[in-house]
């Protein structure tokens, strides 16, 4: 039997169909073409197949056998054949395709390398942004080590790969296959803001301009929460100082205020807001009046609460030859990293585990190549947010304000 991890396939002619995808090509004209090798049984045009990893069924409308640069359409393929199937939506390299009645594999067969470098993508022509996004997304289907994501906090498209050369190759494919060009830059860091001390704030929104006016008055208490706790809203109004039907308006206003802090207009996190008092007007109070009052009170509270910046911290595992471990650890220390430990591997490598601010490790891939003569690699995953050292915050805020001003001028 053929063995793939803990899955066995008995390669017999009269068994139920099974094939393994080894290549996916995305063409802007013919679409997606999935290449697979038939390991068992046979497949006919018009059959329905099952993808174990995606857990979906799809119909094979056309079936091809590649011959050099040509694709010869056939009505049936059998064990040992290399086949090309167009327009399979959910196919990925390493997936099994099988007879729906004899399913295989609902997990990944192969562990592909994790991305080591990320870059932001900027369109050379803003009118082509949809075309670029579509092209990059299609390219991820043909390369499991190439990733794309949209960061809503920084409003950036970010692509990731195993190195600079890898990203350059993918952008060449983007240009050749989809006719669009982009510029790469360093991704923006998704900083957050929070407070460092407990404080109170009050705001009265009062406006009269003939007829019904606007009136909303809130008193709130803000207090910092532990990292990762997010946001909490508590209603401690007693005696009807603010009618129950306006409490959701106050919370809505606070949540609106969370979207933009006072330091660099970053989202606010890890704060509890307690609504404990206020007042209303029987005629002039409204939903919008209490929202405005809440937003303004929250901003005052952020100013009074000694706001600070938070930055994302990554869990990093670096695989390096033992002779280079000392140099790499020194580099980690220079990047405000905290070494969590080391583990030897069977092949003479060391795994260095560390917590490192994301801002410090964006360009680490090229540095690691230099330190280890191209032999080292690393993986990283988000861990948590921590306060940015005070001596670094001023520069970050200045750069952020310059970016916001430039974006404002650009419209």
From TrEMBL:
Q: Which GO terms describe its molecular function?
A: GTP binding; translation elongation factor activity
- Any one Gene Ontology BP term: ribosome disassembly
Q: Name one Pfam family in it.
A: EFG_IV
What SMART domains does the record point to? EFG_C, EFG_IV
**Is Disulfide bond found in the keyword set?**
no
Keywords carried by this UniProt record: Elongation factor, GTP-binding, Nucleotide-binding, Protein biosynthesis
Q: Which residues form the Elongation factor EFG domain?
A: 308-396
Question: Where is the Translation elongation factor EFG/EF2 domain positioned along the sequence?
Answer: 188-306
Return the InterPro entries for the record.
EF-G-like_DII, EFG_II, EFG_III, EFG_III/V, EFG_IV, EFG_V, EFG_V-like, Ribosomal_Su5_D2-typ_SF
**PANTHER family from the UniProt entry:** ELONGATION FACTOR G-LIKE PROTEIN, TRANSLATION ELONGATION FACTOR G-RELATED
Protein name as it appears in the record? Elongation factor G
């Amino acid at each position: 039997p053929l063995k793939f991890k803990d899955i066995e396939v008995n390669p017999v002619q009269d068994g139920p169909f099974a094939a393994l995808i080894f290549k996916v090509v995305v063409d802007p004209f013919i679409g997606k073409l999935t290449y697979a090798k038939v390991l068992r049984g046979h497949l006919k045009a018009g059959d329905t197949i099952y993808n174990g990893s995606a857990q979906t069924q799809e119909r094979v409308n056309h079936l091809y056998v590649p011959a050099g640069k040509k694709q010869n359409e056939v009505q049936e393929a059998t064990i040992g054949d290399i086949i090309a199937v167009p327009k399979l939506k959910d196919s990925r390299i390493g997936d099994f395709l099988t007879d729906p009645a004899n399913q295989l594999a609902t997990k990944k067969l192969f562990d592909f390398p994790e991305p080591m470098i990320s870059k932001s993508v900027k369109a050379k022509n803003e009118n082509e942004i949809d075309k670029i996004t579509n092209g990059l997304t299609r390219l991820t289907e043909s390369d499991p080590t190439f990733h794309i994501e949209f960061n809503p906090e920084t409003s950036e498209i970010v692509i990731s790969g195993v190195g600079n050369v890898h990203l350059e190759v993918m952008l060449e494919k983007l240009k050749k296959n989809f006719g669009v060009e982009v510029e790469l830059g360093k991704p923006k860091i998704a900083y957050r803001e929070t407070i460092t001390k407990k404080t109170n704030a009050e705001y009265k929104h009062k406006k009269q301009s003939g007829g019904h006016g606007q009136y909303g008055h809130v008193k709130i208490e803000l207090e910092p929460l532990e990292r990762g706790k997010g946001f909490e809203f508590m209603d401690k109004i007693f005696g009807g100082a603010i009618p129950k039907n306006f409490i959701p308006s106050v919370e809505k206003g606070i949540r609106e205020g969370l979207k933009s802090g006072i330091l660099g207009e970053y989202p606010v996190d890890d704060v509890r807001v307690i609504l404990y008092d206020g007042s209303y007007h029987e005629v002039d109070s409204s939903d919008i009046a209490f929202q405005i009052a809440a937003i303004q009170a929250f901003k005052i509270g952020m100013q009074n609460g000694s706001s600070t910046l938070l930055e994302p911290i990554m869990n990093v595992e670096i695989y390096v030859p033992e002779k280079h471990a000392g140099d790499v650890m020194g580099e980690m220390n220079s990047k405000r990293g905290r070494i969590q430990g080391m583990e030897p591997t069977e092949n003479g490598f060391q795994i260095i585990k560390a917590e490192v601010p994301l801002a410090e490790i964006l360009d680490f891939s090229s540095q690691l190549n230099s330190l280890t003569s191209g032999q080292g690699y690393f993986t990283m995953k988000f861990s948590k947010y921590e306060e940015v050292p005070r001596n670094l915050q001023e520069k970050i805020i200045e750069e952020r304000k310059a970016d916001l001003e430039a974006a404002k001028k650009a419209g």
